[in-house]
């Protein structure tokens, strides 16, 4: 997809007829070049778009899980902790959870959590081991603590979260320690609050009625040199003003709503992005929203 995008750009520079006939494509490339200029400016002025916001939480003990690393065969402990500062996941019943786990893509349901850094501890045999702290919403923790199905679900989600973040491979033959709620000492964690990028309006057009639906979008990775950026181009026919758009960028998720109930887009992407440095720009002439997200890792 990236090769196709830049391939079209190259064709435009060598074929004058394409320049004359594909005006919309030219406008999109001009917008893309403008975004690249803004990226360069932001790197020269790193504080120009600094919207980082953190809260410090002191998690409470919850469950302690014992497992092993599949690669090193060393003991690994997972402290599943609780805090009211972590937002709860969407409400879900036991029957809905069973249906979700049996579905083809259970990853559609996400549990907000804070994954702490690894810390070295000693187990009951005074042997060295590694422990991780995972913090979830305290009300959801209580729900998991009362139902074995929810408990196994949150353990699995926590283990998979640690595997993805720290490139681990942990055994699924874990054990819940009955007489220990955590291993080591629980440390405070910094949790980033949600920050919505500022949407800049370029032009205006007449509004057109549209039924609420999922808009067409394209995900690109660029520029071809330098730090990678994930760029989402979202077509929003009928939207004339950025004031009707609500955009939320997460580390691996993008949520967009065009009010009143025109469009709704909720997607997960395979890249980890810097949500605080992300920004968006709406061109109401082409009715395309472009969201630029610096890539942290894949």
From TrEMBL:
- What range does the record give for the signal peptide? none
Q: Which GO terms describe its biological process?
A: box C/D snoRNP assembly; rRNA processing
Query: Coiled coil as a keyword?
Result: yes
Q: Enumerate the spans annotated as PIH1 N-terminal domain.
A: 47-197
Sorted alphabetically, the Gene Ontology cellular component annotations on this record are: cytoplasm; R2TP complex; ribonucleoprotein complex
| Keyword field | Coiled coil
Query: Cross-referenced Pfam families, in alphabetical order?
Result: PIH1, PIH1_CS
Q: Which PANTHER family match?
A: PIH1 DOMAIN-CONTAINING PROTEIN 1
Name it: PIH1 domain-containing protein 1
Q: Whose protein is this, by species?
A: Tetraodon nigroviridis (Spotted green pufferfish)
